[in-house]
Description:
62 residues, alpha+beta
Amino acid sequence: MPFESPVFTMKEAAEYLKSNESTMYSLAKSKGFPAFKVGGRWKIHKDKLDKWILDQIKNRNY
């Protein structure tokens, strides 16, 4: 069974959200988005991204 990293690159996060990389970079620079830099490259922990998604849904009263 292959190892699946719990940390996404921006490209992987964009695919996960059905978005594009430029949107991910814009979000990464905004306050409250759970991205962080490692060696100058943005990364996103999947669990924190999932929580952020749920928070967005709750804040919009869906």
